């Protein structure tokens, strides 16, 4: 025989492995676990330990207790029987709030301790179950019209939207540029209308950069405003 041992003998020597790594009850319990909210809980979750102490920093949604000052906080009351109201407060309001506490001397800093800016905002959002960068595709279940356009959220002065037609993927991606000055744009392939939903600050106080170059004029700049979206 060319085989030294039979297939049955070889199969007996292989260690049996369970089909499921952990029970479904454990998986459900992990999904139902509360999300870390305090700095220490977030640091411990990222480090994979039961407890870890870090310096103080501002979280995305903190918790405050006040006696009836509803106008100062966001959220719903928790306990009205004892006149104690608990609210969730958004602590991240400016760029200065997106700085980490840093690591202790002699230790390697984690992303939670040293990240800044948008990276830090994304990490804090993931820790609390908030999708900071909404990467979901645009609404492709209908054709946008002038009376009912497809809204595109934007936190900046300009935004690019990719249209794949209606029904979805009926044509190749056509990129449409919309700005605050021209918030409405129509796809030249399918005719779907998109409109900017501006959610950014009303006034940008960053005036330290030089003035931007003026965009070259085209025939579209000489169309009367009342004819632009007809």
UniProtKB/TrEMBL annotation:
The protein's annotated pathway: Energy metabolism; oxidative phosphorylation
UniProt membrane topology term: Peripheral membrane protein
One Pfam family it belongs to: COX5B
Keyword vocabulary terms for this entry: Membrane, Metal-binding, Mitochondrion, Mitochondrion inner membrane, Transit peptide, Zinc
Zinc among keywords: yes
Residues where Zn(2+) binds: 163, 171, 187, 190
Subcellular location: Mitochondrion inner membrane
Name this polypeptide is given: Cytochrome c oxidase subunit 4, mitochondrial
Native organism: Gibberella zeae (Wheat head blight fungus)
């Amino acid at each position: 025989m060319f085989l030294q041992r039979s297939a049955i003998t070889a199969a007996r020597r292989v260690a049996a492995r369970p089909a499921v790594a952990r029970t479904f009850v454990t998986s459900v319990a992990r999904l139902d676990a509360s999300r870390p909210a305090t700095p220490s809980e977030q640091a411990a979750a990222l480090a994979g330990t039961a407890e870890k102490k870090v310096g103080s920093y501002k979280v995305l949604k903190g918790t405050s207790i006040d006696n009836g000052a509803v106008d100062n906080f966001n959220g719903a009351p928790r306990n009205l029987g004892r006149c104690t109201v608990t609210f969730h407060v958004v602590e991240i309001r400016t760029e200065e709030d997106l700085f980490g506490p840093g690591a202790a001397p002699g230790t390697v800093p984690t992303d939670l301790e040293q990240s800044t800016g948008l990276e830090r905002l994304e990490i804090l959002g993931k820790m609390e179950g908030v999708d900071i960068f909404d990467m979901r595709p645009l609404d492709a279940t209908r054709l946008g019209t002038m009376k009912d356009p497809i809204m595109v959220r934007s936190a900046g002065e300009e935004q690019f939207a990719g249209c794949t037609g209606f029904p979805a993927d009926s044509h190749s991606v056509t990129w449409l540029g919309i700005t605050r000055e021209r918030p409405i744009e129509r796809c030249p392939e399918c005719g779907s209308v998109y409109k900017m939903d501006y959610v950014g600050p009303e006034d940008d106080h960053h005036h330290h950069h030089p003035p931007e170059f003026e965009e070259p004029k085209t025939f579209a700049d000489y169309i009367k405003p009342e004819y632009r979206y007809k």
